[in-house]
Amino acid sequence: MKILSILDKYIIKKFLGTYIFSIILIISISVVFDINERLDKFLSNNAPLKAIVFDYYMNFVPYYTNLFSALFVFIAVIFFTSKLADNSEIIAMLSNGMSFKRLMKPYMISAGIIAVGSFILSSFIIPPANETRIKFQNKYIKDKSVDYASRIQMQVDKGVILYIERFDNKTRLGYNLSLDKFEGKELKSRLVASRIEYDTAYHWVLNNYSIREFHGMKEKITTGTRIDTTLNVIPSDFLVSVNDFEQMSTPKLYSYIQRQKEKGLANVGGVSITQFEIEFHKRFASVFSAFILTIIGASLSARKMKGGMGLNIGIGLGLSVTYIMFQTVSSSFAVSGTMPPMLAVWIPNIVFMFIAAYLYSKAPN
Question: How many domains does the chain contain in total?
Answer without folding.
Answer: 2
